[in-house]
Amino acid sequence: MGATTDARVDEWRRYVQRRAAIAASDVDEMEAHLRDQVDDLVAVGLDEDEAFLVAVKRLGNVDALSQEFAREHADRLWKQHVASSPADGERAPEFGVVLLLGVLAALAVRVGIAVLSDQTVVGNAPLLVLPFLGGYFAWKRRVSVTVALTGLVAVAALAVVLNAYPFDGFKGTHVLALVHAPVLLWCLVGVAYGGGRWRSRRRRMDFVRFTGEWVIYYALLALGGMALTGLTAAAFVALGLEPDAALAEWIVPMGAAGAVLVAAWLVEAKQSIIENMAPVLTRVFTPLTVVLLVALFVGLVGGGDLSAVDRQLLMVMDLVLVLVVGLVLYAVSARDPLAPPGWFDRLQLLLVVCALAVDAVVLVAMVVRIADAGLTANKVAALGLNLVLLVNLLRSLQLSTAFVRGRRPFDALERWQTGYLPVYAAWAAVVVIALPPLFHWA
Asked: What is the domain partition of the chain in residue ranges?
């Protein structure tokens, strides 16, 4: 980055710092995003002046500040690239695109309900909805035709696997494939979210933040939708009408599909609100999860013979570990990377230690069961997931310990977590594509 661009960044930073509502740590994070964007744009062929202007424009919530900055500094280049398209004017067409895609997703689900069996439509629901979410980000991030076509081919291939494999009923490898397919689809959405630049660590972490915030918004929309649906149903019942069929076949599934797009748009438009909630949520759930893990460890160890542990319990334990890793990842995404180690970092370290203890017990129980009864598709899927989580937790323990002791920067832990994300996608692909034929689709 040249001296001219550094001067422009310094000028932009001084301007943003004059806003009392923006904390210094937020300015640091925005500047880091800005510099990463400039570097990426220069790498694809833009000159530094143009890259700087485009990067400022992409900061989203800072657009309004960019408009004022452009007006105060009557620079020809600023006026050409920034002041020409007001942020307020862009929001209306974007919401129109989201609304259209949400309606299309809802209609796709409704058509699926009409033409597919109940089991088939449940399995294909993510395929009917998530491509529209990927399309929204592909449109917004202006991804290349190559990236868009690659994503469509991947979705089509996944649809073929789920619907053309000769599964032996709605069980075994079929259920495993249906459970893991949304992971692959969500990763494809992440590629579109990052504008096709999935190798960028910063974009991966942004997508992690988006995922956590999207879950919050979708949950809020779902709660509100359930309340409204319940009141509407009660009103119809009071009128002597039976709304069950309409609710089950029209309102609930179509509303759930459309809410996927609306929640994504809310995250994009209102990030500053949820970003303030993220640190609070991680601080609430981390100590509760530590207590839960300690109780599970005591229960597993105190239960006696590990070979007698119920199979369903072992699968639930894996899901708990997934929740723990997700909590660690979201805590990393919500943390100020420049802040020194504090009590919450030590609590996170304790969380990882407890998770490793539970993971070790679950792993031993799985190995004992496999030695006694042999391999099945469910056991392979559970064992593979356990090992994937174990590697993540072990490295997280090492890096978290080094950070708390002041021997490694927090950035190392962040790099590990974002760099490990493709491993989850790879394992999901193995379960969906390779596991069914290995076990004869049973």
From this structure: 3-85, 89-268, 271-438
